[in-house]
Amino acid sequence: MSTRTMGPGAGWSWLARAVNLGRNNPRAVIGAVAIVAALALVPSIVQVAGQRLLGAEGMVVVAALATLVSVIVFPLLIGGVLRVIDAAERGRPVAAMAVFEPFRGGQGGGRLVGFGLLMSAIYLLVFAILVATVGQGLPEWYAQMMQLQVEAAGRPIQPDDLPDPPPGLGRLLGLGMLLGMFLGGAYAIGFGQVALGGRGVLEAMRDGVTGALRNLLPIAVLAVLSVAAMFVLFLVLVLVGGLLGLVGGLVHPALGVLLVAPLYFGLILLMYVVMFGVMYHMWRDVCGAPAAPPPLPANQVEL
Fold first, then answer.
1. Where are the beta strands (DSSP E) in the chain?
2. Residue 163 region by backbone torsions, left for phi larger than 0, else alpha for psi between -120 and 50, else beta
3. The pTM is what?
């Protein structure tokens, strides 16, 4: 299966179509994404609870276990979301709970987990190489930051207490963003090949790397647009959330939290919808067959 090369405008198209995701079956698509978004909060909640109940040492163990579970479970959920999106885009009936179908036998769950583990290993390898080459002093600085957070025990950390960052941090972040952009494209294309294209793990990896290399320009355009969109969303959260919190806080602090919470979770859901939509449309343009348009209502004819 060959990969296709898209023009730079595809980066904008992926983002625009992702925002419009679920127009054919919003209940199934948005519902499936909401399920994954809610489950994605579980590891963080478990880690916070572990820190308070078990202390710093227990937090490390809980964090390690939560990470292990996430590496195994979330590839299955991502594959389920992509299949729900694909069914909706092709006009097939589908429900939100179909997101759990990859957990059943014979649904390619092993390939999904295998691809997720392989990509996680590649991410760690690339990060280790970056740190070893241009990130001298980063492990020590990170250890100091973690120790400072543990010693603070929830108290505000003063700026004077922060250790000086290593000299190569800016260069490391720049290279990390470039490589992360490329690996993100390879991940989206390769994961689509596993979940929707029926490819094996190594075949999907090859397709993902080849597709990302052939589409570096639209992926770069997508990255720039995504950063700009994230900045706008952050401003909305700060301005609108701050206003709601202030108005609600005048009555009672709990009311302020209740007013801000829907906005916060709504923006999280929007980001998940766009993320999965971009993954799907990038894969479909680079590797997948175009989706057929949904059938017209009985009282309409195509001109």
1. none
2. beta
3. 0.84
